[in-house]
Amino acid sequence: MELTKKLGLNDSGRTVGVISYFTLIGWLVAYFAFHAGKKTALGSYQLRQTLLLNIVFIIVIWGLPFLFGSFWTVEGMFSLSYFLRLLEFGFFVLWIVGFVGAINSEKKPIPLLGERAQSMFSNL
């Protein structure tokens, strides 16, 4: 845990929360390297949120083009690529809200997903 001391992170779950927001690989590192041996309430809270955020992001960003790519023939401002960029921006805003909560060691739910994540993944 030398790295956590150098970065100024404490072991109250803040480290797990911060690392878990960096893609699915960051979530896996946070869970197996930091959380599995020493579970904390804050770490579990942040892991639940980021897991659902990652799952929904993958389903939406990869699933919409797969399902509607051949049917969505509108060009210009209403094309599928512009719609996906708007969704990506929305996910980025959700990510920022959750990441700031993790940095501040707060149990602040991500809008639209946070409360659902707590009930869906209550065993984490």
What would you note in describing this structure?
It is a single chain. The chain is elongated. α2 packs parallel to α4 and α3 (23-35) packs antiparallel against α4. The protein has six helices and no strands. The mean pLDDT is 84. It is mostly helical and 124 residues long.
Sheet with most strands: none
State which percent range the strand residues make up.
under 5%
Low-confidence stretches: none
Number of helices: 6
Task: Please bin the fraction of helical residues.
Answer: 55-70%
Instruction: Please write the string of helix (H) and strand (E) elements.
Output: HHHHHH
Give the radius of gyration.
17 Å
Structure class:
mainly alpha
How many β-strand runs? 0
Q: What is the average of the pLDDT values?
A: 84
Identify the overall geometry.
Answer: elongated
Observed structural traits:
mainly alpha; 68% helix; 124 residues; single chain
How would you summarize this macromolecular structure in one to three sentences?
With 124 residues, the protein is an all-alpha fold.
Sequence-ordered SSE layout with sheet pairings:
Layout: H1 2-6, H2 14-20, H3 23-35, H4 41-68, H5 80-103, H6 114-120
Helix pairs in contact: 2-3, 2-4, 3-4, 4-5, 4-6
